[in-house]
């Protein structure tokens, strides 16, 4: 039994690598695709563990493709319509929900708006947001002020509160990352 389609993974992976070409992970020398790979790994890990526990993710390919593509609309010139043509409407809708809408207002308002739109999607999309924040809760960049670090932690708690119930692996894993992040606050 295969848990996901390697071809679906590769198609989204190559698309994301092209879309993010030339971008770097903020505060690092890594190409941006390193972040994308980490989020996909979190989602794939959760899919694998849940399959072993008899709690399978209903649409693993949707979760993985949205993980691989989760930042292309927010951070590149790719549009949701282009995603719909190549990957279908469900991937396009998932990535759209995962993308902040710059017309909404300030950053906290954009996050609230995105979380509300993610909650209208299936649990596979919630999983991507959990994996994204798990990936981003590493040691903060050295130039971050304590207030910014605390607000990032608070935002992670909101994500956990709103989306953590979608996944028995990623919900607790995000909580553990939030607890570990306290050392930086
Ligand atoms: Ni991301």
UniProtKB/TrEMBL annotation:
User: Record keywords: Cell membrane included?
Assistant: no
- Stretches assigned to coiled coil: none
Which top-rank group of organisms is this from? Bacteria
What InterPro entries does the database record attribute to this sequence? HD/PDEase_dom (IPR003607), MESH1 (IPR052194)
Sorted alphabetically, the keyword list is: Hydrolase
* Record GO terms (molecular function): guanosine-3',5'-bis(diphosphate) 3'-diphosphatase activity
Query: A Pfam family this protein belongs to?
Result: HD_4
**HD/PDEase domain: residues covered:** 28-146
> Which PANTHER family does UniProt cross-reference here?
GUANOSINE-3',5'-BIS(DIPHOSPHATE) 3'-PYROPHOSPHOHYDROLASE MESH1 (PTHR46246)
Q: What is this protein called?
A: Guanosine polyphosphate pyrophosphohydrolase/synthetase
């Amino acid at each position: 039994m295969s848990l996901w389609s390697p071809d679906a993974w590769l198609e989204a992976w190559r698309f994301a690598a092209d879309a993010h070409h030339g971008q770097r992970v903020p505060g690092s020398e890594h190409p941006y695709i390193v972040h994308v790979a980490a989020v996909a790994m979190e989602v794939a890990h959760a899919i694998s563990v849940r399959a072993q526990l008899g709690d399978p993710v209903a649409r693993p390919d949707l979760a993985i493709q949205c993980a691989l593509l989760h930042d292309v609309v927010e951070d590149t010139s790719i549009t949701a319509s282009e995603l719909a043509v190549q990957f279908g409407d469900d991937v396009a809708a998932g990535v759209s929900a995962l993308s902040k809408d710059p017309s909404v207002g300030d950053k906290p308002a954009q996050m609230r708006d995105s979380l509300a739109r993610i909650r209208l999607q299936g649990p596979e999309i919630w999983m991507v947001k959990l994996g994204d924040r798990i990936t981003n809760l590493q040691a903060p960049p050295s130039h971050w002020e304590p207030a910014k670090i605390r607000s990032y932690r608070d935002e992670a708690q909101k994500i956990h509160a709103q989306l953590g119930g979608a996944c028995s692996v990623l919900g607790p894993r995000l909580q553990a990352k939030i607890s570990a992040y306290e050392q930086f606050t």
